[in-house]
Amino acid sequence: MKTNFIEALEQYDIEGIKRIPKGDLHNHAPRGGNVRFIEKWAGVQIPRLNRKFLDLDDMQSWYKKNVRCHCQGIDGYEIRIKGAFKQAKDDGVTKLVLSFGLGEETIYGSLSNFVKVISRIHKDVAPEIEFIPELSLDRGTNVDSILHLCAEYFNMNFYRSIDICGNEFAQPIANFKPLYRLAKSYGLKLRAHAGEFGDADSVREAVEELELDEVQHGIAVAKCKNTTRWLAENNITLNICPASNIILSRSQDYKTHPIRTLFDSGVRVTINTDDILIFDVSISRMFLDFYKDNIFTVYELNEIRQNGLM
Ligand SMILES: [Zn+2]
Questions:
Q1: Alpha-carbon distance 136 to 118, whole Å?
Q2: How confident is the model at residue 3 (pLDDT cuts 50, 70, 90)?
């Protein structure tokens, strides 16, 4: 039987696609909002992105110059978080993992104050969304210096998953082992960015060293058949962000994006936004574009959608 999602795809009905439940498991909260929502709040016009980025530094400086300058301080932070929940709600996201960098909470003086604010925004904007807060560490972090703080935070039972992002080459991922052991003992889901800029081996290393459940991006794996097979056999999900990969010059376009190869090799993949405030491409739009470009069938896209809700 055809689901509404399949019918909406076949009819190129973006509004219909938006109404169907979906997950977003890779979303950096302060950059998870909607550009038009921020424009309205700040009373400004933000230039639309009309080029690809060379790397993460290039992206950061564009973001600071064009978006971040309009939403600074506590008010600016909160409007971006509100924007993230609103964007997700408007796109039919029913399961939302929002990633918060360690240190973001300090503007509120304590984690408990931060939790109150974030929980209030969730309740006010999109209480129907299953919200999964994630603690995100920069790859350059000195792990010994934050272990104690993280233990204190895990005790407060707010964060339900953990991630590492930023420069993949900053230090060996194995340095995060003590933190991931700790996170595992608290029952957190274990994720890390790997294989976005790094190679296939770096993805396997991350999964093995940190006992990851899921990898953020992981697309470099497609270049190595053995690692791809290994990932599929070990049921490791890749939370892929195709629009991000294209804009950050990790892939030419949807047609050549490795998600098709990974899917064909039996790797469980999901489609996510990453930094939608910058890229301005929704999950519904990506589903539709993959269908329009004839890369996935409606049934395959429905399977990918359901992966995001598991
Ligand atoms: Zn990311």
A1: 15
A2: confident
Structure letter (DSSP) for residue 134: E
pLDDT digits (tens, 9 = 90+) for 95-150: 999 999 999 999 999 999 999 999 999 999 999 999 999 999 999 999 999 999 99
Q: Is the pLDDT of residue 1 over 80?
A: no
Neighbour tally for 64: CB within 10 Å: 10
* Greatest C-alpha distance within the chain: 55
The whole-number pLDDT of residue 2 equals 66
Determine the distance separating the centroid of ligand 1 and the alpha carbon of 120, expressed in angstroms.
Answer: 25
Please check whether residue 242 is in contact with residue 286, taking contact to mean a CB–CB distance below 8 angstroms.
Answer: yes
Q: Which amino acid is at 37?
A: F
CATH node for 4-307: 3.20.20.140
For the beta carbon of residue 246, count every other beta carbon within 10 angstroms.
Answer: 18
How many angstroms does the Cα of residue 165 sit away from the middle of ligand 1?
6
Half-sphere exposure of 125 (CA within 13 A, CB side): 25
Q: 11 CA to middle of ligand 1, Å? A: 31
pTM of the model: 0.97
Neighbouring residues of the ion ligand 1, judged by CB less than 5 Å: 274
Distance CA 237, CA 215 (A): 6
Ligand 1 centroid, distance to 164 Cα (angstroms): 9
DSSP assignment string, 225-294: HHHHHHHHHTT-EEEE-HHHHHHTTSSS-TTT-THHHHHHTT--EEE--BSHHHH---HHHHHHHHHHTT
Q: What is the mean pLDDT of the chain?
A: 97
